[in-house]
Amino acid sequence: MPPSDSKKRKSRGEGAAADAEGPRRRRASGAEPPPALKAEEDPEERELFGALSAAQSDSDHAPYNEGESQILDNTKVPKRSTQPNKSPPFLTTYERVRIIGQRALQLSMNAEPRVDPKSETDPIALATMELEAGEAGAPRRFLPDGSYEDWRLSDFAW
To answer: What gap in Å lies between CA 126 and CA 118, rounded to an integer?
Structure first.
């Protein structure tokens, strides 16, 4: 069947892409897909997402509004540990690198140095000087029970 004048295709590639994506475009724009496509279920989609029950359909869910925040039911906010610090009082290499890296990023974005920079301009060297002087940020250690401990740099054994 030749295409009508109102549905002329510009190129062969565009026509093939339009045919392949036709149902997707209709669903995205809000129009109902043809009944034959609606009745079919993709087995791969069923495996990934499971079958929808009769009570659960697209109309049951609240629409997504881009500007609104959505809080998930299973969100757990960590709590501060009520016991004294349990973890060892040693600053690990990873904590040291993270503290220096975060502070170096701040210094590279024109934050005020907390120590006298003398003639130093390298943000990593300045961050290391601040850590050694005890002026850098303190690490927060998360525990297996989901709580956390806040440490001060003066609490660590150097």
So the answer is: 10
Distances in Å between the Cα of 12 and the Cα atoms of 19, 23, 142 are: 11, 19, 58
The two beta strands, 148-150 and 140-142, are antiparallel
Structure tokens at 158: 């150097």
What is the DSSP code (8-state) at residue 62?
A: P
pLDDT in tens, 105-131: 999 999 999 999 989 999 999 999 999
d(CA 36, CA 92): 62
The answer to whether the pTM exceeds 0.70 is no
From CA 89, how far away is CA 9, in angstroms rounded? 71
d(CA 52, CA 60): 11
